[in-house]
Amino acid sequence: MATFAIISDLHSNLEAVEAVFARIEALGVEDVVCLGDVVGYGADPLPVTLLVMKHCKWTIQGNHDWGMFHEMDDFNPLAREALMFTRQQLRPFFLRPRRRQAYEFLRGLPDRMADYGFNFYHGSPRDPVMEYVLKSDGFLEPEKMAQLFAHVEGPCFVGHTHWPGVHRPDYRFTQATDEESEFLIGGPCIVNVGSVGQPRDGDPRASFAVVRGDRVQIERVPYDFRRTQAKILAAGLHPALAERLARGK
Ligand code: ZN
What we know:
249 residues, alpha/beta, Purple Acid Phosphatase, chain A, domain 2, 12 strands, binds zinc ion
């Protein structure tokens, strides 16, 4: 029975990442996998990428990781500005070998992974890096969900929306809450593990998942977001990127 943790959407938030790795260790879970968006938005792309390289069994590419190496036309202005900062922080420089290692690591990320009998994507099963599977898609976009579930044979895992919960083949989405945080993953379903570094479900605590056999538990971990906010402001990033961390939005 495989036991492993899934993290996603770290977004250069070192305090959240450290708190999550500490919780995973306290839970006694050895394997950790990462669904991407290691960087973007936050002030600490280098230390966060190095921690991921050290602790994660594998990592796949998120849209912000992709944006490090491509034209960013589709990114909103805040995301683009933060990626310009991230590129500066990680630009390879011969006196900074760890920067080059982090840069090459992000550049070489695969866009999907299969492991433990499951499939893993940052975004969606048919468009792994860019497409959002939104919690509202079940009732607003049933055709989209039908097309997505045509790609889903068993349980699969995504991030990207920063909303933890489970999409079922009947298109129902069950949001993970403190009252309902453990889910059976027997048949086809799309599990969103939420975001470590920038939750958007109104809960500022870092979100990640632990899979034990046919069950997945969404875990929430408080961290010192005031420290993260101060670093974002000190780095000259947009104040909205700091402010949202307190609201989990
Ligand atoms: Zn993200």
